[in-house]
Amino acid sequence: MTVLLADEAAARAWIADILSPDARAWARLDRFAAMLAAASAQQNLIAASTVRHMWTRHIVDSAQLIPLAAGADPRGAWIDLGSGAGLPGLVVAILHDFDVHLVESRRLRCEFLRAVVADLGLEPRVRVVESRLELVATTQAAVISARAFAPLPTLLALSARFSTEKTRWILPKGRNAAKELALLPVAWQRLFHVEQSLTDPDSAILVGTGRIGEKGRKSV
Question: What is the reported pLDDT for 166?
């Protein structure tokens, strides 16, 4: 299978065609990409080998989640778990009007996230939540995303309390997406389907809607 967005020009063209950012959003994306590349030389935010493929490997890899959130309440919170370098949370915040909560427990990464939020003028719509997820105050999420946070059963168990019947789950899980989904309790499996990544032929995204209940029961 061929990578659908194989180069940087194609990645930028996809953003223009699908998300139609204005000049301010483009400037913010460029500035974020520059800040991410510079900071990655000081701490391990992204792999050095991916810097020259910033738009395909990181920006569009994050931006492709936005259309998958169609139907979620735009007035609600988008909670990005284990936000790390702000992927996908900061890209979402630049390209969409969601209130975005960047949940990250590592101090240096939180310092980077705060610096980007301030530099891009994203306050107060974007919040950096420096905490382990277990200690974060419960709030209802319109969307929950997690690019590289935890194995799927752990991720769902820890974040279930943020979900409602309308919560949209958007979880990039790489090449093991279908296998991880198959290991879930059947009631949880029924909430999700698998979407192909636009940037990697071997990667997939789990997308679902609903409340995750305790011990594998779908809440009603």
Answer: 96
Backbone phi, psi, residue 55, to 5°? -75, -40
Q: Which two tokens stand for residue 78?
A: 């988008």
Q: What is the pLDDT of residues 61-91, one digit of tens each?
A: 999 999 999 999 988 999 999 999 999 999 9
Q: pTM value? A: 0.93
Q: State how far the alpha carbon of 53 is from the alpha carbons of 48, 76, 162, 182, 199, in Å.
A: 10, 32, 34, 32, 11
Those residues whose C-beta lies under 8 Å from the C-beta of residue 86, and which sit 6 or more positions away, are 32, 36, 102, 112, 113, 116
**Per-residue confidence (pLDDT) for residue 8, from 0 to 100:** 94
106-135 in b/e form (b: 16+ CB < 10 A) is: eeebbebbbebbeebebeeebbbbbeebee
Residue 139 CB contacts under 8 Å (≥ 6 apart), including other chains: 77, 79, 101, 162
